[in-house]
Amino acid sequence: MDVSFSKYHGAGNDFILLDDRNSFFPCENKEFIQRLCHRQLGIGADGLILLQRGTKAPYRMRIFNQDGKEAAMCGNGLRCLAAFIRNLEEAGERFEIESREGVHPCHLRGDRVSVSLGRPFVKEWGLTLF
After folding, report:
1. What's the CATH fold of domain 6-115?
2. In the predicted model, is pLDDT for residue 1 greater than 70?
3. What pLDDT sits at residue 72?
């Protein structure tokens, strides 16, 4: 089976991106993902990102680390996926992508890609290191 892919780079991370809206990719095959991401024996990347159909937004991101394990989210990966979507089809300047962490508004203007990751929250405060 021939599968076309793209490779994107965002703020120090590089990703293999695949259009998986027909759900063909074997997500459970960690060894295959590891081979794809291997820098000497595969395509080479920090991770693999699948574009899928969303249930809460038009698009869904599934991201896998080099070790083949699925991650919940990656801001750099989300920006790369937004640019990938724009290059695949005539998406408008604004659209949403869902991840395991929620729905993320995306805004594209020219070469600039902005995504909303939500508000940060304080987990611990005032800890003493030494």
Report:
1. Diaminopimelate Epimerase; Chain A, domain 1 (3.10.310)
2. no
3. 92
